[in-house]
Every structure is written in structure tokens, then in C-alpha cells.
TrEMBL record:
<dbReference type="GO" id="GO:0000155">
    <property type="term" value="F:phosphorelay sensor kinase activity"/>
</dbReference>
<dbReference type="InterPro" id="IPR036890">
    <property type="entry name" value="HATPase_C_sf"/>
</dbReference>
<keyword id="KW-0808">Transferase</keyword>
<feature type="transmembrane region" description="Helical">
    <location>
        <begin position="345"/>
        <end position="369"/>
    </location>
</feature>
<dbReference type="InterPro" id="IPR003594">
    <property type="entry name" value="HATPase_dom"/>
</dbReference>
<feature type="transmembrane region" description="Helical">
    <location>
        <begin position="291"/>
        <end position="309"/>
    </location>
</feature>
<feature type="transmembrane region" description="Helical">
    <location>
        <begin position="259"/>
        <end position="284"/>
    </location>
</feature>
<dbReference type="InterPro" id="IPR008979">
    <property type="entry name" value="Galactose-bd-like_sf"/>
</dbReference>
<dbReference type="Pfam" id="PF07695">
    <property type="entry name" value="7TMR-DISM_7TM"/>
</dbReference>
<dbReference type="InterPro" id="IPR011623">
    <property type="entry name" value="7TMR_DISM_rcpt_extracell_dom1"/>
</dbReference>
<feature type="transmembrane region" description="Helical">
    <location>
        <begin position="228"/>
        <end position="247"/>
    </location>
</feature>
<dbReference type="InterPro" id="IPR036097">
    <property type="entry name" value="HisK_dim/P_sf"/>
</dbReference>
<feature type="signal peptide">
    <location>
        <begin position="1"/>
        <end position="19"/>
    </location>
</feature>
<protein>
    <recommendedName>
        <fullName>histidine kinase</fullName>
        <ecNumber>2.7.13.3</ecNumber>
    </recommendedName>
</protein>
<dbReference type="InterPro" id="IPR004358">
    <property type="entry name" value="Sig_transdc_His_kin-like_C"/>
</dbReference>
<keyword id="KW-0597">Phosphoprotein</keyword>
<keyword id="KW-0418">Kinase</keyword>
Length: 717
């Protein structure tokens, strides 16, 4: 809307300037009084292309020069003035009252100039050069004081070099505008010019407040993204207004700086319309489509046009047209929302209606009562009223959301209190249940403790039973070993008793006794006594060997001949089984490593392991033998081997073997494949613990069902 009003204002000014008839050209400009805003020197100027310092002299005859109105746009002036250095001269005559006053002139131009009065240089603005590319322009000159002169006719000469910027459209700007005024008039005009844009500072404050307010709304409720978009709208209005205010109150040393600042203000003002449109899309729950994307593309093209051709009227027309289109799209969305009865659409529609009224008031001010301050106030309202409408709607939505949240909060508090009461009831119930559970757990723990005590006692009994079973096997073997020499002792004792009785009978014959027979009986008796002594010593040796193994303290390690220990327990195990079953026979094969270094161990413990392995091997081959397999020969092979710091002892049999499932459980406590009453299931478990935990070695098994098994003991050397 503001851009439309600016276009109308420019059009009215253009029409008034074009319609105002120029007075007839005169040689001398008569200045009888100064208007309130000063006198713009438009008529009476003569010009000449070239550069001659003599043209500054008041007595120079310039009657042959062409006349010109330098305030007209550059494109309407002679082309020769567009390049190089030119001179402009104005003859004027001041009224007597004005000649006694101090007067000033100030110039607005697109170029550089030197200002002379009656041949005296008054001001040097910018850098003049015959090459337009080397000209350093001065966009606005400060007040230049005219010295008082008694001359009735005075000559104002301007040496001028135009600036030709790369930006397009500069030909539509005035070439040179010189204004004559008194110092109070000049400074009052400056004050009016800067005071007229004060409403934009008010707009800056309002926009800053709206930006912070709606950013706070968005932070509180991120789901309502319209607050974020409206904050973007308010922020661009803030920056655009601040930039335009800076442009309006500043005197830029070069026109390119001022035009750059004005271009930034224009682009920010145009962008604010896009953010306002996006906020309406979010408010009315509409999805931005291709039209909104096209607006952004058009905005980009317009920014490029404003940068490249800021002076061209087409840029102003495009800017105003773009503003009209964005406003029309926002009015369309608002009208559609009002027809659909969407909540809050009436508030936004009222804001746009007030904006239109303010726009018509701007046109009235331009036509009926031109006043910069009043016009800027109305222009400010065109931005504020729309923003206030949208802001009121968002604030209303925020208030409704807050009320709804308050209601929900009350409901949550009520439910929380109810839940807390239920939770307290549950806690009381849980406390009672926990107490009951603790009692049950305590009772169960006592039962488990008793069961554990019974289990440990049973386990101890089973372990003791296993030890006794091993001891029984060992005792049977020892008994069988001792039985043989004892049988010999008994037999030879009986035979010796018979020989003694026969010798007594022979001696009772007296002289008739046969001396040779007596000698023979003495010889037989002597041999029997030797044999009794031999077999007695043999039994004593067996007992002595067993005592040597049994005398080792529990846990005491000492170097032991593993080959001898293995051979002894192998014989005892075999003899023990033979004592139970005279018909049992097995082929025993040993392969002991020659020169095997003694192994530090607890002899009785390792002997118990060996006895268990040998007994199991004999049991396995006996079971297979009882199956009546033709051609089967029970065989047990025992070997020792020294390998890389370890001693390996292998016990192989060709018995029934084991399945994979049995091998996985073979070392578990209480696992046995023997019938009930024949095994405790602790033999191999205890053997594994003795070797692995007691001696730091290993006990492994390899077996194939129906073909036999192999147990390997690994002991560190």
C-alpha cells in the first residue's frame, strides 16, 4: 500500500511539473522576495559546453549561449551536457531588501561542480574531469554563503562535470538543482526534512516491540509458527524503517552511497510483504504453493532491478506493482477466510480496511495539503494497522491457548491428585504385600537353607562314598596283590609242617633211621623256609609301597615318578576288578616315556584320578565284552609323553564309547551312565577338579560311540 501511495505522489508531482508553463526567457532573473522554502533557480540559465576560466567573470558576454532549465531530467537536456565539462551562468538581480541580507545557495546534482559568484570561487564540490569516468560526484552540497555585494546585477556561474554511473536510469534524475534561500530558511527546511521522517522512528519502536513479543509467543508455543513468520515481518519492517530514516537524515558524500542505503530500505520493505503473506498462510492453515514461490522469484528479480537501475522509473513502477500484488494476495486470503468463517479473520480484515482508509487519506494529503510529516504519519499507519490486526489476532490466539492450557493444567492437577491418592493406596497395599512376601521369603529361605544343608551333607556323603568306592577298588587290588604271596606262605608252611612230622618219624627209628632221607627232608624244609621268607618280603614290599603313597600329607606336593605311579595304580585297578570277576581278562598295553622327569604333584590325589580313569576304562570294555561281539578283544592302553613343558598321560580303551550329548555332560557333578547303585556321578567331576584346580592342568576326553574313548591328563612340568 505504501508503494502505491508513493507512485501516486510521484505521478501528481510529474503532472504538475509538466503542466506548469515556463515563463518567457529573460536575460536577467528578477528576485524580489524569497518563498518560505527558498527559491529554486530554474529559469534564466545559459550553458556552454567546454572549459574556459574566463566564463566565470561577470563581464563575460554569454548572450550567444543557449538557455536551459537544469532542474529537468538529464534525458530531456542536450546530449552534449552528458559528457565532459560544461558551464552554466545565471544573471539575477536582487531586490534592495534582499541585498542587505545574508543569503545561501545549496545545490543537488549528479556530478561535481565549482560555484562562482561574480567571478569569485565560493565552493568546490567533488572532482571535475573531462573524462566522465574520472569524475568523483558530490550528491548534495551544504549551504554556500553568498557574499554581500553592492552590485545590482550579479552572475552565478557553475562549472559542472556530469557523473555517469554504471547504474541504469540516472538519466531520469535532475541534472542540477540550485536553491537560493536565507540561512534561517535553509536550516528550517533541513529541520522539516529530518523531522518529517520522525514517524519512522516510532515505526521502528513498534516493530521492535512486535518482534520481541511474537518471538516470545513462538518460544512459548512453537506449534503456532505464524508467530515466527510475523516476527520476521516485524523485523524486516524495523530494519527497513531504520534504514530509510538513516537515508533521510544523512548527507552522503557521494550519491552512490545514498542510493545503496535507499535500495536496502526498499528491498527490506518489499520483503516485509512476503513475510506478512507467509504469516497469513500459517494463520489460515493454508499451504504455500507455487504462487508463493513465484512471489519469492519475483522478489529476487526486483532486487536485481533495484540494484542495477535504482534511478529508472521502471524500477519504481515494478516495486509499486509488486507491493500491490502482495497486498492483493493478502486481501484475497483474508476475504476467503472471512467467508469461510474462520476464527479471527474479521480482526485481520478490519486491520486491512483501516489500512485502506489511511491510504486514501495519504492521497488526500498529497493533493489537498502537501505536508511531509503528516504524509509520513499516514504512511506509518498503513504499515502499523495491518501489523496490529495480525498481532491482535495472534495475541488473541495466544490468550485462548493460555486459557485452554490453564483448563488442562487444572484437569492435570485434579488427575494428579487422584493419581496420587491411588498411588498412596497402592503403596499401602504394596507395603502389606511386601511384608507378607518378606515373611514368605524368610520362610522359604529357611527351607532353602535347610535344603542346602541337607544337600551339602548329601554331597559330602556322596563324595565320601565315591572316595570309599575308590578305596574299595584300591583295597581289592591290594588284597589281591597280597593274597598271592600269602597263599604261597600258607602252602609252604603246611608243606613244612608235613616235612617236620616226617622228619620226626624218621628220627624216632633211632639207629635204623635213614640218614640220606633225613638230609633230604632238611634240605626241603630249608627251601620251604626260604620261599616263605621270600613271599613274606614280597607282601611286606607291597604294603610298604602303599604306605609310602598314603603317608603324603594332604595337599603336599613332591616330585613323583609318574610312570611308576601309573603302573602301580593300573595293576591295582586291574587286580581289584579281577577280584570281583575271575572271568574278566583284558589286554593291558603301556607305552611310558623313557627318562620322564619327575612331576611335582600330590601323589594320592593323582592316584585317585588314575584309579577312576582305569576303573571306567575296564568298565567300558567289560560292558562291550558282555554284548557278545564276535572277535572282540578288550584292550586298555596307557601312555605318557612329554610335550612343550607339559606331561600328557593318555588312557585309551576300545569299549562302548560315548555320544556327543554324553561327552558334553561327562564332567558335570552327579552325571553318570551307570545303572542306579553302581555309580555316584562324582568320579570324573572330582577328577577334573583335582587336575584343573589342584594342579593347574587339564583333563580332556575324545570318544566315538561304539569304538571307545580316550582321556588325556595334562600336567605342567
Amino acid at each position: 500500500m505504501r508503494f502505491l501511495l508513493l507512485l501516486v505522489a510521484c505521478g501528481l508531482l510529474f503532472l504538475s511539473a509538466a503542466a506548469a508553463p515556463l515563463p518567457a526567457d529573460t536575460a536577467i532573473l528578477q528576485v524580489s522576495r524569497l518563498p518560505a522554502k527558498g527559491l529554486l533557480l530554474k529559469q534564466g540559465w545559459r550553458y556552454q559546453v567546454g572549459d574556459n576560466p574566463q566564463w566565470a567573470r561577470p563581464d563575460f558576454n554569454d548572450s550567444a549561449w543557449d538557455t536551459i532549465n537544469p532542474t529537468r531530467p538529464r534525458r530531456e537536456l542536450p546530449a552534449a551536457l552528458g559528457s565532459g565539462i560544461s558551464w552554466l551562468r545565471l544573471h539575477f538581480r536582487l531586490a534592495d531588501s534582499l541585498r542587505q541580507q545574508e543569503l545561501v545557495v545549496n545545490a543537488r546534482l549528479l556530478g561535481a561542480c565549482d560555484i562562482y559568484l561574480n567571478g569569485q570561487l565560493l565552493a568546490h564540490q567533488g572532482t571535475l574531469d573531462a573524462n566522465p569516468a574520472q569524475v568523483q560526484p558530490q550528491g548534495w552540497t551544504g549551504p554556500v554563503v553568498l557574499p554581500k555585494s553592492a552590485r545590482a546585477e550579479q552572475v552565478l556561474a557553475v562549472r559542472y562535470a556530469p557523473w555517469q554511473p554504471l547504474l541504469r536510469g540516472s538519466s531520469y534524475s535532475p541534472q542540477l538543482a540550485v536553491r537560493l534561500s536565507s540561512p534561517p530558511q535553509y536550516w528550517q527546511g533541513e529541520a522539516r526534512r529530518k523531522g518529517a521522517v520522525a514517524p519512522f522512528l516510532v515505526l521502528v519502536g513498534i516493530s521492535a516491540l512486535l518482534t520481541l513479543l511474537h518471538l516470545a509467543f513462538f518460544r512459548y508455543n512453537p506449534a503456532q509458527r505464524a508467530n515466527l513468520y510475523f516476527a520476521g515481518f516485524a523485523l524486516t519492517v524495523l530494519l527497513g524503517s531504520l534504514t530509510y530514516y538513516y537515508y533521510s537524515v544523512s548527507d552522503f558524500p557521494a550519491p552512490v552511497f545514498g542510493m545503496s542505503v535507499l535500495t536496502v530500505a526498499r528491498t527490506l520493505g518489499i520483503m516485509s510483504g512476503l513475510w506478512s503473506m507467509r504469516a497469513l498462510y500459517a494463520l489460515f492453515t493454508l499451504r504455500p504453493g507455487r504462487l508463493y514461490a513465484a512471489f519469492w522469484v519475483g522478489y529476487g528479480a526486483l532486487v536485481v532491478l533495484l540494484i542495477l537501475a535504482p534511478y529508472h522509473p521502471a524500477a519504481l513502477l515494478a516495486m509499486v506493482g509488486f507491493g500491490i500484488l502482495t497486498t492483493a494476495e493478502q486481501l484475497r486470503m483474508t476475504t476467503q477466510a472471512m467467508r469461510q468463517g474462520k476464527r479471527g479473520a474479521g480482526i485481520i480484515g478490519a486491520g486491512y480496511a483501516c489500512e485502506l482508509l489511511a491510504g486514501f487519506a495519504c492521497i488526500g494529503v498529497i493533493v489537498l495539503y502537501p505536508n511531509g510529516l503528516l504524509l509520513n504519519l499516514l504512511l506509518m499507519l498503513t504499515s502499523v494497522l495491518r501489523a496490529l490486526g495480525i498481532s491482535l489476532f495472534l495475541a488473541r490466539e495466544f490468550a485462548l491457548d493460555s486459557q485452554l492450557l490453564q483448563v488442562k493444567l487444572s484437569e492435570v492437577e485434579r488427575l494428579s491428585a487422584q493419581t496420587l491418592a491411588q498411588e498412596q493406596d497402592k503403596q499401602a497395599l504394596l507395603a502389606a504385600q511386601n511384608e507378607t512376601l518378606e515373611q514368605q521369603v524368610q520362610q522359604r529361605t529357611e527351607q532353602l537353607q535347610r535344603s542346602l544343608t541337607d544337600l551339602r551333607a548329601t554331597q559330602a556323603q556322596l563324595i565320601q562314598k565315591e572316595k570309599m568306592a575308590s578305596l574299595g577298588e584300591l583295597t581289592a587290588g591290594i588284597a589281591h596283590e597280597i593274597q598271592n604271596p600269602l597263599n604261597f606262605v600258607t602252602n609252604f608252611s603246611d608243606l613244612s609242617s608235613e616235612l617236620v612230622a616226617e622228619l620226626r618219624e624218621e628220627q624216632a627209628k633211632g639207629v635204623a633211621a635213614d640218614a640220606a632221607l633225613q638230609e633230604e627232608l632238611f634240605e626241603d624244609l630249608t627251601q620251604n623256609l626260604d620261599k616263605i621268607g621270600h613271599h613274606g618280603r614280597r607282601a611286606a614290599g607291597i604294603v610298604k609301597g602303599m604306605l609310602e603313597h598314603s603317608q603324603t600329607s594332604a595337599g603336599e606336593r613332591r616330585p613323583t615318578n609318574l610312570n611308576a605311579l601309573t603302573e602301580e595304580y593300573l595293576r591295582l585297578a586291574y587286580q581289584g576288578l579281577r577280584a570281583k570277576d575271575k572271568s574278566f581278562n583284558v589286554e593291558l598295553t603301556t607305552d611310558f616315556a623313557i627318562g620322564l622327569t619327575p612331576v611335582t604333584m600330590v601323589g594320592p590325589d593323582v592316584g585317585r584320578v588314575l584309579l577312576n580313569l582305569f576303573t571306567n576304562a575296564f568298565y567300558a570294555v567289560r560292558q562291550r565284552q558282555q554284548q557278545g561281539e564276535a572277535g572282540y578283544q578288550p584292550t586298555v592302553r596307557v601312555s605318557t609323553q612329554q610335550v612343550e613343558g607339559q606331561v600328557h598321560l593318555r588312557v585309551q580303551d576300545n569299549g562302548t564309547g560315548m555320544s556327543q550329548a554324553v561327552r558334553e555332560k561327562i564332567f558335570q557333578p552327579f552325571f553318570t551312565t551307570k545303572p542306579p547303585g553302581e555309580g555316584t556321578g562324582l568320579g570324573l567331576s572330582l577328577s577334573y577338579d583335582i587336575i584343573a584346580q589342584g594342579h593347574g592342568g587339564g583333563l580332556a576326553v575324545e570318544s566315538q560311540e561304539g569304538h571307545g574313548s580316550e582321556f588325556t591328563i595334562s600336567l605342567p612340568h
